[in-house]
Design goal:
single chain; 7 strands
Amino acid sequence: MGVSVDCTPLRNGPAGHGVLVLGGSGSGKSQWAEHLASTRQEPVLYVATGDAALADTDWQQRLQRHRRRRPASWQTQECGAALPEALAAAETAPLRLVDALSSWVGTLLALEEPAWQARVEQLLTCIPPQQGLTILVSDEVSWGVVPASASGYCFRERLARLNRHVAQRCQNHWLVVAGRAVDLTRWSQPIPYQQA
């Protein structure tokens, strides 16, 4: 059964525009980001950060589902850890959809903190874009328990901080829960934030 979705128009700024779509695993956040992109009537560059070579059956099946869902007219670039470089190279593209920041963080967990911070700064220089629109998908990790492993804790802390930095640079924000999308820009207020 088809579902008609009314979409709040994305508000464009004159110097480019960023949209952040947050949600938990399986929430529908990628599908919502794809819907937002499809309403724009512009060529889409889909920037995939997941490791396409990972030898995991479940992961490969998930990648295949994502690939089948994308329109054939969309161009796809699988960038892995090279997300800042991919966005910089595509600065003239009218619409870039990044899926997902969480996968990007996962590819860089082995970096020491100074090297990680340098990569974050490289990414943030691309958000918002100089022109056009960039839609960024990411996992909301703050609702789970504190991970018991060091790598799990590192992932959660890095992604949570990155999400906040990216949100500060975006003009639109969405939260997707159980297949429902909430316009955070309309229904929320930014809180004062200082880097600890």
